[in-house]
Amino acid sequence: MLAPIKRLVRSQLKNHGRHLIYVPRNEPAGLELDHDLPLIVTAGRPVIFDVGANVGQSIDLFSRLFPRSSIYAFEPAADCFALLNEKYTNERVRLFQVALSSSDGTREFFCYRRSVLNSLLPLDTHPANPFANMEMINRTVVTTRAVDSIIRDVGVSQIDLLKIDTQGWDYEVLLGAQRALADGRVAAVMVELNFIPMYRGQRFGETISSYLREQEFHLIDFYEKVRQGRHLAWCTALFSR
């Protein structure tokens, strides 16, 4: 009796442009980060590096999914960092007004009308870039740090989740974590992958995926996918050892 009912439900959903999909309870499904992240990050008190915190979108997600976590959040933009300082006052969230990169130093930082587009790279004017005409409101010099030196300074022995969303600069952040990755001190990586020319000088998603495979990480799935027509433009990818 259940089979005809399932077929009827699937048929009705399909007529409205929807699909019924089975989601396993204890295995990643590749649909929602809310479901899959707790299956990948299993430490009781996970240490999370949020690289490119912006105004706290990921901090809120991690705090909800991992209420006993310790979050180290990195955001170089002064206005965004001020908002983070106002919003997060508990000791579980430590804030750093720096940009993470392949090495310690300084670098020019580009700020745009939409702060989620801020980057250490300027936007590309390629016709495929939907943000090619976004107004730049400021450019400044910011401090850069490498994950490996941050780990040393704060005394962290293990990163359970390294989240990177730095608008085209993600590969450089991974290079700055080379020693931690090689030593097996990073358990999972959540990173934005671009497949269209959004920033001048960016590394594309295929390069980042290949680098993580070399470091013995395996792809869990793609999330938050954005398409241009039939092609994948960018997404969030989750990798684990």
Account of the protein in words:
A hairpin with a 2-residue loop joins strand 9 (about 220-230) and strand 10 (about 230-240). The chain is built from 8 helices and 10 strands. It has helices at about 1-15, 35-40, 55-65, 80-85, 145-155, 170-175, 180, 205-215, and strands spanning about 45-50, 70-75, 95, 100, 105-110, 135-145, 160-165, 190-195, 220-230, 230-240. Strands 3-2-1-7-8-10-9 form a 7-stranded mixed sheet, sandwiched between helices. The protein has a 3-stranded mixed sheet with strand order 4-6-5. The chain is α/β, with parallel strands linked by helices and about 240 residues long. It is globular. It has a single domain (about 25-240), classed as 3-Layer(aba) Sandwich (Rossmann fold), CATH 3.40.50.
